[in-house]
Model the fold of this input.
Amino acid sequence: MLEKADMIAVTQKILAREGGFVNDPVDKGGPTKFGITQATLSSWLSNLHGEPVYATTEDVKNLTVEGAAEIYVVDYILKQHYDYIPNLKLFEVVVDSAVNHGPRRATKWLQAILGVSPDGVIGGETKNKLMSANLEDVFKKYCAQRIKFYIEIVIQAPTQIKFLRGWINRATSFLEA
Done:
C-alpha cells in the first residue's frame, strides 16, 4: 500500500492541474472547482449529513482546497482502493483519471489492462494482478487508453474539441514525468 505522504502529494498535483472554479456551458461536468463537480459535492455533502443535500453553484464556488483534498483522499483514493496500486506513476494516473472521468471508468480501464473482468471495483483479483503485473507496461497502456478516450469524446460530441488540446496535454504529461 502507498504511504499517506504519496497520496497527499498526488492530491496536491491534481489540485494544481484542476485549478479553480469553472462553469463553462460546453463542459458537460457543469460547475466545477478543483475538479469537484456539483454532483460530486452533492454526494459528498449528502454522505456527511446522512440525508440528501443538493450543492448549489455557490457551494461549488465556496469549496476550499482542503475540502477538495479531503474528497480526493476519501472518495477517489481510499474508497476505490487505489492505495493498493504499488507503483506511484500508475497510482497517480489512475487517481487523476478517476477525478477526470469517474472512478468506475478509471478502475475498469485498469482491470481490462490487467486482464481482470472489468467490474469497476478493485477487489482481491485486481489486487493480486497488480502485485504480479509489469506495472511500467500497465502504466503505458493506461495512458494510451486515456488518450483514445479523449479522442472518442470529441468524435461523439464535436463541441468538446475545445478541450482536446488540454486533455491531451494532461494525459501526455504523465508520460513525460
About this structure: The chain is about 65% helix and 5% strand. The chain has two domains: 1-79, 86-177. The domain at 86-177 is CATH 1.20.141.10 (Chitosanase, subunit A; domain 1).
